[in-house]
Amino acid sequence: MGILKTLRADWRRHAASASQRSMAAVATYRFGRWVREQPKPIAKVGGKVYGAALLAAEVVSGVFLDRDTEIGEDFHLVHAGGINIHPDVVIGDRVGLMHGVTLGTGPDGGAPVIGDDVFIGANATVLGAVTIGAGARVAANSLVIRDVPEGALAIGVPAKNLPQLQTRLRSPKKAAGG
Q1: Which pTM value belongs to this model?
Q2: Which of 136, 91, 117, 82 is nearest to 146 (CA)?
């Protein structure tokens, strides 16, 4: 997907509003990734522009999102502010982050790997070489320092996993006897 098509999709996902502060961080990230793939003279000048834009985007949005971070499609910063993502983090498709989220390295130096369809609540922190499985949820104000299985809810400090919670929540007819 080209940069303009990707930016249009990001624009729609982030409420198609210039007042949506998180769009500044996402657009800067996309520009940084794009400029790195350009021929050397363009990449060199573009890298300088990216560096200034990264600083400005962080000030405007409160989001640190380096171009070295691997991010899948449909990434969504639900609310800007206080989001810090280490460049070594890998993020899957359709991931949503609330404000105040930190995804960073731990004492082992490793960084989190976030699976597809994951949602991370406000002020949650995920540290170290942990894996958040596909479809998992991390509750607000939780500290994740151990792997979270697919479809589980991680909650608490340190977070404990409640397995299969998401599956139970998706089938209200079964729970109601229907």
Answers
A1: 0.83
A2: 136
